[in-house]
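Comment thread on ticket #2218

A.B. wrote:
> Attaching the input chain for the structure job we discussed in standup.
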Amino acid sequence: MSRAAPRRPLIGVLGGMGPAATVDLYAKVVALAGARRDQDHVRLIVDGDPEVPDRQAAIAGTGESAGPAIVAKALRLKAAGAEVLAMACHAAHAYRRDVEEATGLPFVSLVDVAVEAAVRAAPGARTAGLLATPATLDARLYEDAAAAAGLRLVTPDHVADGRRRLMDLVWRVKAGDSGPGVRSGMAALASELAAAGAEVLVAACTEVPLVLTQADASVPLVDATAALAERLVALGSRG
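C.D. wrote:
> Ran it. Output below, let me know if you need it in another format.
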């Protein structure tokens, strides 16, 4: 008698922050699944509602908190049957604990998988460069995971006008611009972080890998979105 395959969890993704980055995550999950038919793909649902207050302003204290809207997303996903949660946005991880407390569901951290991927990509590296937005930096989302992995962080704060330049590029990507100007601007920031000592780079904003690839970097580049997709496939595959 053949045994029934283990039941795979339904994974809920808090998306829409922003929409193109959410599509990128789902596309990577599909590409990595190794599926031969529809039924082999990861069981996944996405809340793509974009009506979440700006995380940059929220964390800076200059705008409405994004927490209630993010928690509402998580609760909608749980009500729809999600058994595991993930977020397709780094800055939104500032509200991770709120999501976990409200839902009681396991949570796959984009930050944690990115740091783990950085360690694999550059064994022995002691300094990681973060292509991260001001909200992610101000919320210190990477500090604990990086310290636990023995990594020092180099950030846009370590290069000239880095925060403003990176955020300007991210806003342009969110507005649909993935042209050569944005790509060269992001590549320049990556180069400057490497020059500041980064031995491995982390695309620590989900808009960054939409315009930056390994070919643009002089040191190993970790696509955190791809790292999350890989983890979700491992969690949700048929085995």
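A.B. wrote:
> Thanks. Noting for the ticket: The longest strand covers residues 11-14.
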